[in-house]
UniProtKB/TrEMBL annotation:
Full protein name: Uncharacterized protein
Organism per entry: Agromyces tardus
Source species, domain of life: Bacteria
Length: 74
């Protein structure tokens, strides 16, 4: 049975430079952090828009209630 010894390196057999691995890890971490902060920013904007829509819906419901109430009174 043939077995292959796997060394610390890439599939091509070249050794991995630790600085390259560390740099890739740093870039990936920075990209994840940026995506999360962008997601929170969009989420807070969405929440503000949703709040405005709820206030508008409440105003419209009150206006509708008043118009129906006055119409039934007269």
């Amino acid at each position: 049975m043939n077995t292959a010894v796997i060394s610390a390196g890439t599939a091509s057999g070249r050794p991995i430079r630790h600085s390259t691995v560390a740099e890739r890890l740093r870039r990936a971490t920075a990209a994840l952090a940026w995506n999360r902060s962008a997601g929170r920013r969009h989420a807070s904007e969405d929440l503000a828009l949703l709040h405005e829509r709820r206030l508008e819906a409440e105003r419209l419901r009150e206006e509708n209630f008043r118009s129906v109430t006055f119409a039934r009174l007269f």
